[in-house]
Protein 1
Amino acid sequence: MIMKNNFLAKITELNSMEQQPTRFGYADALLELGTREKRVVVLDADLSKSTLTSRFAEKYPKRFFDIGIAEQNMLGMAGGLSLTGKIPFVTTYGVFLAGRAWDQIRTSICYADLNVKLAGAHGGLSVGPDGATHQALEEISIMRVLPNMKVIVPCDTRQARLATLAAAQMSGPVYIRLGREPIPVLTTQKTPFNVGKAQIMKPGRDVTIIACGLMVYLSLLAAQKLTKEGISCEVINLHTIKPIDRKALIASAKKTGAVITAEEHQLAGGMGSAVAEVLAQECPVPMEMVGVRDTFGESGQPWELMKKYHLMDGDIAKAVKRAVQRKK
């Protein structure tokens, strides 16, 4: 799907763009669903003010359940609620959701293909000062390996809202990754969103940059800079990691002959690995990956951490040049 909006025309400096955390879009969608779909219930693990599910609790107190710091119990309860016909949205920090309750997600929810929606907040290094214990850098790989699980990483707050609304209409478990810090809003009110369909944010001919979440913005910045150096980058927003859009990835790789992946996540098992699994089988091309390289994060300001761990637009541009060189 090629986006009609001229994204590059509006991308300049970070501080000049509208910014919101993706968790805002999630909270807005829950309020819409509260009115639209009476079966929706929300569960939280003593973090409702941070995850913003407190907004749903204020408006629909009888359909909100604060389970306390008991993530495993929360997932078991969500499974039970789904069997009564409810649509549970389970919300807490991604590192706790995917880590502490993985067995319940695997055996109680995915094995039975129950209709439970999971929202993992505070994904990535951009959590900032909360540090390594709260920075989810592994949960995409942990979630995507589970049969029946769908995995979505919205690129901005508007897409987070649409992803949440879409999850409510889908059958079976869905994991949505959300961020804490404000990030640039790339999409518009008219930008379409379809689960499992990658978005071409910028067409190009020399190399493909495939990104998710915050890294979509940084990839567009890198593409803009590289245009001035004569390198034409195609930028794809792979918001749905699973089910992955094999057709779009293969078509772009065949067109450009080189691929870069960019993610705010461990390289092992993440989005880049998912892309590599597809291309290794269908269209092997020179490929470089930008992401966290087998290390934990630390406490610091979000953009300082992104720079330290080599996740900025300049790092993406360097990876692009390496891939393009390998084509020769």
Protein 2
Amino acid sequence: MGEIFMNLNDIEVLAPAGDYERLCAALDYGADAVYLGGKSFGMRAGPENFTYDSLKSAVELAHSKGVKVYLTCNTLPRNNEIPYFEEFMKEAVDCKVDAAIVADLGLLSLVKRFAPDMEIHMSTQTGIVNYVTANELYNMGVNRVVVARELSLEEIAEIRAKTPADLDIEAFVHGAMCVSFSGRCLLSQYLVSRDANRGECAQPCRWGYHLMEEKRTDEFYPIFEDEKGTYILNAKDLCMIDHLDKVVKAGVTSLKIEGRAKSSYYVSIVTNAYRMAVDILKKDPNNYKPPEWIREEVFKVSHRKYCTGFFFGHPKDCQYYENSGYIREYDIVAVVDECKDGMLYGTQRNKFSAGDEVEIISPKEMYDTCKAEKLYREDGEQIESANHAMMKFSMPCEKKYPKNSIIRIKK
């Protein structure tokens, strides 16, 4: 794995976009490509996703910034859904989407029929774990494989070495992990009739469980001596920001960030961290070491405890049994609208007060720490705190920050 399989300029930071706001966050903070879903055929039913009109606007905006757009068609559709797929793909073509992400071989054939010029990316839900499968998919017209999350770097390197050079390899490098194989899970369907393979997962792997004796249904026994139960299925989050050089040397072209259901703050911060890390990697791939402040950024979003998944072999420390909650040490409190004449004008997201110490984050830059000495309402009246949702405010600030810079505060 010492050899780098690709031109470093081809490395792609691929960010999630659950709606238009999160799309803009990914674009502002350095994504090379985004993946998003329409109102059907996508694996995330929870986010707002995109209508035809909003998808068309999203692609136009992304393309104006040189960013590609990949459309998720990665559910496992039933018979009654197939007749609607032709129109879905015709709209995708009309919107000039760059690629379709599919998991089902039937949909693969339909994408080739209805959108013959569109790239096809085979989803991680396909369960691609060897070079034979990757080669067969390539022969069927697939341009990219999103390898299963259960693969080690050595296994990915072998797939890269034994597949055509123009077959891209994509892998998740950050975000939530699924306890099932490549996201194919029936637990949610069994327990609450929400099909994980149709974008409706209720995440029962995050729930606490107890043992119950068959004839004593009112008595519950924790598997460990813990009144909260035991989170036996709860996986840690994936974080590979320290190991991007190894991922790239294994032959991964596209570095994928999970999180279409996450906040725009999450998309901004994590995309920014990986953007800066990849830029450092490109400058000196043989001596990659991201600065500590870039590493710290991925800890300043809501996250579970981190691990490195299966990349280094069997994940001995990737389950977390104490609880399924998130670690939240920072809150976004505002977004910058503009800076002029020594003042920062912004829109509030969470309450903060005059005198609070805040951090201001701009794309591709180390955050600044400063004190919000004074706060003013939109009409110019001085206030003690910005305490109304989405209220406009201003505060003294000599430095000019670009629009959509983020202001956050440590809890």
Protein 3
Amino acid sequence: MTWKHRLRAAVQKLLGLNLINLRLDGLEAQLGLLQKELELARRDLLDAGNLSRETSITLVSSAGPALHSIDHILPKGTVRDNTRWPRMAVWAEEQFGRKVRCMDLGCAGGGLVFDMVSAGHDAIGVEGSDLSAKFSRAEWGTIRNRLFVADITKDFRLEDTRTNGPAEFDLITAWEVLEHIPEELIPGLFANVVRHLAPGGIFAASVATYEDADATTGMRWHQTVQPKSWWLAAIGRIAPGLAEVQGGWRVKDFPRGSGNPNIPWDWDADASPERGFHLVLRRA
């Protein structure tokens, strides 16, 4: 169980602290991280009942992994990220006044899906690389039935086995994903969003606007670095049924681009707006 693994890791961190050599400020930081680990372990234990619930959503067709993706060829986020943000589950329920069905695109380790399911939502994740699946990394070892591998820029289809029809979602998210997609593949991604987003549903995403590249290999993880105005214009052309939502959300509601303290490399759109922005779009 995840809570056991998290608790064991937290205790090991505590036992491994070299109290003699650590400065007070360093010890404070370590204890702060330990407290977060223990809190997540406690939550996971309390929410174990929701995690045992099955989902009726299944992947019925896809082009397989995104073998063209730089993050698959030279893995970075796909083997590093496992974003946790319980606050997102609260925000989702506030928007709809009920529990929702959610799909997280580019879900990496599946942490957000884990949090949504823990809170009682019906959530699944789709990841373009199969590396986490192969090694049962992060939540692929705990909620594997809710995590799928598919190239999100090519046609994929999810089905609801209760109705034997297409699966529709109230909420579709993509955190630190859009900038990784080459410009020519963006229409394919939004075709999948529109196909699976229910009428009145919300698409929410964080989009980085800074370069991310490896000087040695020349690989660029951020393929499409454009301002918000460019993205809104592009989405307006390829998915005209999606309209920007004005208000009803705050940067801190979202798991990325909010200075997430569980992710040392996360940026904060409030503190550093030049590094990115958030999109919240609703389907008519």
Protein 4
Amino acid sequence: MERSPISGGVADGFDPVRQAFEANFSDHSELGASVTVVVGGETVVDLWGGWSDLARTRPWEGDTLVNAYSVGKAVVSVLLLQLVDAGAVDLDAPVAEYWPDFAAEGKAEVTVRHALSHQAGVPAISEPLTDTDLWDFDRMCAALAATAPWFAPGERHVYHTNTFGHLVGGIIRAVTGDRPGAVLSRVAAPLHSDVWFGVPDAEHHRCAEVAFEVATSLSLGLLEGDDLDPEQRMVLLGYVNPPGYSSSGVVNTPEWRRAEVPSTNGHMSARGVARFYDALLDGRLLSDDVLAEAVTPQASGHCPVLGQDVTFGLGLQPWTEHRPFGRNPGGFGHYGSGGALGFADPTAGVAFGYVMNHVIPRWQSPRNRALVDAVYACL
């Protein structure tokens, strides 16, 4: 098999990061990936390598875009938090104050804070949907607004795996009149941050193919039976209603790349992710007060979707020993399925972006841990 090509560079003293990146290909089945690290506003690592297609014929480039999954949750959350900063949205106001249709089926008291901290009660949509619905942002938001809460909002937290993007994005649309993809484009352009919700057709040639498949057919079969209790049905529907909500069977299609599913299908480069977090560190995106509130724990404890204890902030996950962001408490960020990662560490002045196309189980992986460890060994 041809050796994976590695390109890019590192600043003096950061060779261990290059070594860890290369080892991810030789030792940890990396297919294609890129990693960018900014320290104190200076880019010290900018590496890319491997292949952007499953056939291993197209080398990964420095500007390759790839589906980064839940890394996008932090990005769409920042767009809403900017509206909080501007005084256009109150965290403790009902979502329905901005999006009246969301009050349906007993959700009138759901607040913006509930929405950002996975306490809104709508981790799944009840109405059966198709992937044709998935391509239509407004249709998805309407179906979510019509869904009765699965639990009393504010009384527990359940990871809104896929609905988070339409919930937070729906508030953004209601306040600004624009879908989150258009808002993100305006925010990201001056940062030179290559992050997208809804990739324009002219940029599809930069998108990497993703090696990932969820057992959707099995899951849909389970839904047809009578053996699921309401909690199990909630969790399962959150993944597979619509069938492609988690990207299964559609991830490498132009329809998926064009769609706006901000919780799940943000397409990004490692440079774009690192530059976004660097802008959070230096105050270009949020005020100190709003950022501090966003990274303050809002809900902690067991989550039935993630199957473990978890702590949620306001879209930005705060540092915990179980799920650290960097090596210093005070770090914040978001992992994506298979190991994609964006985070900021204010103590060390580090902004980090890592994206890849071979999705392996869980968020933390030997690959991203090796890269983060190498960065901190160089500081």
